[in-house]
Amino acid sequence: MLKIFTVCPQGLGSSLIAKINVQKALEKMGIEGDVETAGVTSITGEKFDLIVTVPEMKDSLERYQDKLVFVTNFFKRDEIADTLEKKFREMGLIE
Amino acid sequence: MKLTDLLRPNLIAVNVHVKDWEDAVREAGRLLVEDEAVEPRFVQAMIEVVKEFGPYIVLAPGFAMPHAKAEAGSIKTSLSLITLAEPVEFGNPENDPVYVVAALTAKDHDEHIGALSQLADVLANDGVVEEIAAAETEDEILKIVQKYS
């Protein structure tokens, strides 16, 4: 099962909306995943496959750059699903 | 909690005149203060979040969701929603200009999950932000929200 964090500066509003839509996208793709919201500091030391976040977080999350996916429209579920699928393929997580 | 538990009729205002994004956040925040959903200091905290972290709160074209941590003065989990008479720029290259602003305050980490999930369902519909922006009355906005949730 994939472990995904949705990260925003406060880990409260945007990351929660992202989590909801990432879960929907995973369901649609038939991929099992555990999605959790987090602030930037709370993922230190955690094990995960992917971070879904906003472009503003790029610098703060630089050390995880291979695992980052950026979302600019939080409500376009198809777009989020496409972006995730592309990244999963890139990472060899799906065929 | 359901979305309509958070977004109560007195927390909605249409065609609000604002001069810039800070003013827009202030107006959405004012509804929360008047409802005693937040302490007055919460409003400034929402503005500071954008100044510190950037305009990431513009979650989709035309739609901003300012919020701040519970410790900034949240009293009860609530959502206010205003539509702007004239759109404003938040500085978000993808999603400016903004014409719908929904200010969120959450008393704890979990209470608002159900309601936000419903909000995500509402806003996942194409054109719904425009539909909300075009509403002439508070009641119309509630009806749009109910229609999609």
What do you see in this structure?
The complex is a heterodimer of chains A (95) and B (149). Chain A has 95 residues and is α/β, with parallel strands linked by helices. Chain A has two helices and four strands; from the N terminus they run E-H-E-E-E-H. In chain A, helix 1 links the parallel strand 1 and strand 2. The two termini of chain A are 15 Å apart. Chain B is α/β, with parallel strands linked by helices and 149 residues long. Chain B has a single domain, classed as Mannitol-specific EII, Chain A. Chain B is built from six helices and five strands. In chain B, strands 1-4-5-3-2 form a five-stranded mixed beta sheet. In chain B, a hairpin with a 2-residue loop joins strand 2 and strand 3. In chain B, helix 2 runs antiparallel to helix 3. The chains are: A alpha/beta (95), B alpha/beta (149). The interface between A and B is medium-sized, with 20 and 28 residues.
The CATH superfamily name of chain B is Mannitol-specific EII, Chain A
Low-confidence stretches of chain B: none
- Termini separation of chain A: 15 Å
What does the radius of gyration of chain B come to?
14 Å
Instruction: Tally the helices of chain A.
Output: 2
Major sheet description of chain B: 5 strands, mixed
In which order are the strands of the major sheet of chain A placed?
A: 2-1-3-4
Describe the global form of chain B.
globular
Beta-strand residue fraction of chain B? 15-25%
Query: Biggest interface and which pair forms it?
Result: A-B, 20 and 28 residues
Order of helices and strands of chain A: EHEEEH
State the share of residues found in helices of chain A, binned by percent.
25-40%
